[in-house]
Amino acid sequence: MKYSTKYRIFLLLMFLSGKIIAQPKKDAGEKENIAYLFTYFTGNAKGEEAIRFAVSSDGYHYKALNNNNPVISSEKISSSGGVRDPHILRGEDGKTFYMVATDMVSANGWDSNRAMVLLKSNDLIHWTSAVVNIQKRFPNNENLLRVWAPQTIYDKTAKKYMVYWSMKHGNEPDKIYYAYANADFTDLETAPKQLFFSPTNGSCIDGDIIYDKGKYNLFFKTEGNGNGIKKAVSDKLTEGYVLQDKYLQQTKEAVEGAGVFKLNHSDEYILMYDVYMKGHYQFTRSKDLTHFTVIDQDVKMDFHPRHGTVLPITKQELNRLLKQWYTVESVLQTARNQAINQNNIVLDRVNQTLYLPVNYNTDLKAFDPQFDIFNQINIMPKGKLDFSKGPVNVKVSIPGQQPKTYSVRVAIANNPVLKGYYADPEILYSNKTAKYYLYPTSDGFNNWSGTYFKCFSSTDLVNWKDEGKILDLEKDVSWAKRNAWAPTIIEKKVNGEYKYFYYFSAAQKIGVAVADNPAGPFKDSGKALIASRPKEVKGGQEIDPDVFNDPKTNKSYLYWGNGYMAVAPLNDDMISIDTSAIKVITPDNSFREGTEVFYRNGKYYFLWSEDDTRSENYRVRYGFSDSPAGKITIPENNLILVKDAAQQIYGTGHNSVIKVNGKDEWYMVYHRFTRPKGISMGDAAGYNREVCIDKMDFNADGTIIPVKPTVGGIKPIR
Predict the structure, then answer these.
(1) Which GO terms describe its molecular function (predicted)?
(2) What is the rounded distance in angstroms from the CA atom of residue 660 to the CA atom of residue 434?
(3) Which residue spans within 9-126 are E strands per DSSP?
(4) Under DSSP, is residue 394 helix (H, G, I), strand (E, B) or coil?
(5) Which of 19, 108, 248, 679 is most buried, by the most CB atoms less than 10 A from its CB?
(6) What is the DSSP track for 444-460?
(7) What letter would DSSP give residue 16?
(8) 566 and 542 Cβ atoms separated by less than 8 Å
(9) Are the beta carbons of 406 and 393 closer than 8 angstroms?
(10) Average pLDDT across the chain, whole number
């Protein structure tokens, strides 16, 4: 570039005067990491074994890209048709990205894979790939059973990218190996060499190496002689790792897939891992990579990841990802106002409508949905809006995409009555406290694997307070540690003092715990009350207890059974039954489970659930009797609670009943599939359920008028 003589003299004078003019600079943030990319897979079904992306602006709040669908086709990049455990790395040049993944479909068995996938990209959007089958590529691997969870790191000494992963040969435990990739990242150019094995001779899998303060920290999962995440440390990348014999996970649950990343502009690290038996991720924070604090309460994701990794990214990279895979619909589902029940947001892409259900007493005249958007995204109007007169049109603009306008409706929704996943609700009015109490199954755990019970209290049946855990099988029950299901409770006066007898299912048996207050603490009796089925019954399970006190005789009865309905009088101690008086009173073939008994106007009503809780047709029928253990008469049209497809309400069943206000005023408490996602979840809908309350009325002859399940629920009782 040439300058005139006058301009050169001007610059010289400015320099000599100390007033040098700053020249324009490049954007200081052009290469600065300001966001995060999370790459993960979602489950063991074939469609879930694929690479997905999510992004975050702070490392705590993540939003799935591409509507949580795969961003790369597993069929095109793998030999098995599926990939798992993706790990992503930024190259030394700052602009090339490397990703590796397990080439595996779990349906073929855990010892079915011998290969990994290597991927490379210059823009995070377009990827080249290659399959490396270790058994075929390298000799002496005839008895190789599996190749799991590869990761990549740059070896500054060798000036090559090193891939490391776990392998299992024959009866030996899994060990971590490494090899160097070729320059094109399409193959491994060196034979696998052992990097680390567990000194306890257990399996060693899911390695993750982080360099910090001159040390290489190798996080791994050990199995066989104690399960969990440990760490080994070395001064060198490829040798000399010394075990720090301490578990680093902050949970007693089974974990795998440790992933560590450093927060942008911070000296803190995040250690995250897959709590795979419970279907969730745990995030922890640390400054020294030794002591970790759980931060789950700060982390939000609109997806359920399995074994993934996080990569810090720049503003330009974030924009590129958003343009390619983020949608207006994704933006609208980020509404995070505390009044919104997040599980029940309904977005209709066809009609471009959004429904936001909010808590009772929410001010609809000035409500801000608080859409969680990146700086690059514009939404108008925003802030507090008036939804009291109906829907409001909201326009969303994403760079590189056509703006869209959605009609947003905000409405009070008192169903479900509890935020989160709960099922099999029992309800009690306590004379001692003059409050109502709900006792549900804690739901949302894969295959009904919850291990604790909670309690909720209310004065109006609409606003519920979480009273916390009242019984934990793992801590409080000696005879059963799994499947905490379907409780029931009764309030009784014993020697002039109120006592609460809580009957519950655990490990397909029925136990009883006792407390002085309706919210506990409860103390287990120390043994199962019902541990085997009646003699004449050949199938079914000993679950779903119901307790009923006969107002005519003040005698209490316990009912139970899946596949059959049994009844027995409770002894005066309320923690044992009269075994000589057990009767099987199954009403008809429609009975599946969930007995509920109540008394009204001289009749004993028996309610039960039909079909399977995983079925959208799970529903409630009833009969009545002249005695609490007598023959059940089934009226015509005895179906009283069914799904309502028009309202997207499915799987309505397993109910209890409450009479309120000292009047002939009745309500049914039941569970349904989570709405609206439950109907598309398959069997998982059966353990992702929600508790609802709706009005129950009777005809003049005492027959029950079918209960209409609603989204709005009931108004607070006075």
Answers:
(1) hydrolase activity, hydrolyzing O-glycosyl compounds
(2) 11
(3) 33-41, 52-56, 61-64, 83-90, 97-103, 115-121
(4) strand
(5) 248
(6) -SGGG---EEEEEEESS
(7) H
(8) no
(9) yes
(10) 94
Q: Give Cβ neighbours of residue 93 (< 8 Å, ≥ 6 apart).
A: none
Question: Residue 365, exposed/middle/buried by CB under 10 A (0-12, 13-18, 19+)?
Answer: exposed
**Residue indicated by tokens 């003299």:** 9
Tokens found for residue 121: 């990209």
Q: Rounded to whole angstroms, how far apart are CA atoms 104 and 117?
A: 10
462 pLDDT more than 90:
yes
Q: Give the model's pLDDT for residue 23.
A: 42
**Helix and strand element counts for the chain (H, E):** 6, 46
pLDDT digits (tens, 9 = 90+) for 486-538: 999 999 999 999 999 999 999 999 999 999 999 999 999 999 999 999 999 99
Identify which of 529, 522, 601, 602 has the alpha carbon closest to the alpha carbon of residue 566: 529
Spatial contact of 670 and 710, defined as CB atoms under 8 Å apart: no
pLDDT mean over 470-490: 97
Confidence of residue 642 (pLDDT cuts 50, 70, 90): very high
Q: How far apart are CA 616 and CA 685, in angstroms?
A: 9
Contacts 24+ apart (CB under 8 A), 65-71: 65/321, 65/322, 65/324, 65/325, 65/326, 65/330, 66/325, 67/327, 67/329, 67/330, 68/42, 68/302, 68/303, 71/325
Q: Which domains does the chain have, with CATH numbers?
A: 33-325 (2.115.10.20), 328-412 (2.60.40.2340), 422-705 (2.115.10.20)
Quote the CA–CA distance of 253 and 274 in Å, as a whole number. 10
Average pLDDT of the residues in 256-263:
97
Angle CA(238)–CA(241)–CA(242) in degrees, nearest 5? 175
**CB contact at 8 A, 335 and 370:** yes
* Confidence band, pLDDT 50/70/90 cuts, at residue 4: low
Q: Which residue has the tokens 């019970």?
A: 453
What confidence tier does 416 reach under pLDDT thresholds 50, 70, 90?
A: very high
CA atoms within 13 A on the CB side of 634: 16
